[in-house]
Fold this protein.
Amino acid sequence: MAEYDLAIIGGGINGAGLARDAAGRGLRVLLCEQTDLASGTSSASTKLIHGGLRYLEYGELRLVREALAERERLLRIAPHLVRPQRLVLPVRPGGRPAWVLRLGLFLYDRLGGRGILPGTQRLDLTHHETGLPLQRKYRSGFAFSDCSVDDARLVVLNALDAAERGAAIRTRTKVVRAERDTEWRLILNNQGRRHVATARVLVNAAGPWSGIVSETIVRQDGRPPLRLVKGSHIVVRKLFDHSNGYVLQNDDGRVIFALPFGTDCTLIGTTDEDFADDLDALAPSAHEILYLCRAVTSYFRQAVTPEDVIWAFSGVRSLYDDGARRAQAVTRDYHLSLDERFREAPLLTIYGGKITTYRRLAEAAMAKLSHCFDMRGKAWTGDAPLPGGDVPWNGIDALAAQARRDWPFLDEAAAQRLVRAYGTRLARVLGEGQSSAREPPFGPLSASEVRYLMRYEWARTADDVLWRRTRLGLTLNTDQREALARFMANETI
Ligand code: FAD
């Protein structure tokens, strides 16, 4: 008998979300991630849980409706990671007319149902704080609702919940070969150590690598229907002093987001370029950086130049190839392809998808595979909180205030950061007292937090901690980073 019911290749949001759903239904699940959880596209997103206003123009009503409904669901199951994000859409002279924007937003407000998030509001930008940083020609606009998310932590907490429900989560474990018989025999490489695992069903959730997995690891015939589209972001010192974000219509018809990032930065993105290069050498090009700088400079009073960029990153969307001509027009909806053959173990390949729709994608995958297993239970993830998320959606400030009473050495910023990362599990991170008193802190990070991340959240390197478990990558200086790396190298877990 196979060791696992379901083996998943890829620890991005789709793999981790599916592992959680399947483990919660009683399946024996193995998830293999070749490097760190969320090290692929799932930490390089615009970090929005959104319906995707732009997709309405492409008639993607199914996707928009599903994604809109997910906003409040994810806000309820992970209120520490997800928060309401008000977005300002200025009317651009010569761009889409105001009535078109109003019509789109009218649909946006109604398609997916809203209970928590406020609806669209018309703005006079000449008399509203969100108009202050903009050039004078932007005189009116709209404000509407979406949510923002800590994308990488969403992946990690799905994996954590899957593990707590019995799944085996193997990071730094590459699936190097998959041999198909009546069950799958997987050859795994864990940092030079070879392992073998067997499973009844295999899922290819390798995101942009799924074509490589299909061709060289699973060795499927035919070209996978995959379109790789690169998107880059830049981060600059903050361009505005309020908590709203902006959706900017660019002169090429695309939209660019300018969003609050951390306490003192603005995140600007993204681009859409067909991608055929090496996934391991992914970086924003000078051309993309200039494109984003020009797009925001055409809106804000303050010009943004490549010299202002303090960080830039890229991700690759692995979209289902629907034959669209332009990269921006390719569908963002997901597609599940089930390959079943007589007396051979099934293979499910995931194409496309959004962070926003990961939970629905997992449900659809489980429905597609339901005949393969004797599963207990039905769809369950819609109202089961992620670890630390068992708090009301608007209860985070109260939780931060409680944290300051429980650990008086925390200032407001530290309490907010910790509660937004760990929610009600903060006590497990900080323990009874200030364990950092005798140990060196690494900037805002305490030794006890680092230890927690190593023991319970699969963090192995300083980059895992700084870029994918916390958002402190831009905060620590070189000395603190090196001290953190040394500490982690000496820590036994
Ligand atoms: P990935 O996150 O790439 O995960 C695949 C994983 O598979 C990787 O971690 C990789 O290391 C692993 N892997 C590959 N090969 C192997 C192997 N042989 N063995 C083991 N592991 C392997 N969505 C939203 O909802 N909101 C947004 O604001 C948003 N913005 C975006 C902006 C950009 C620029 C991009 C590119 C995407 C954006 N998206 C957004 C979409 C979203 O980020 C992706 O749909 C999602 O992250 C895809 O997740 P995934 O799990 O399929 O892929």
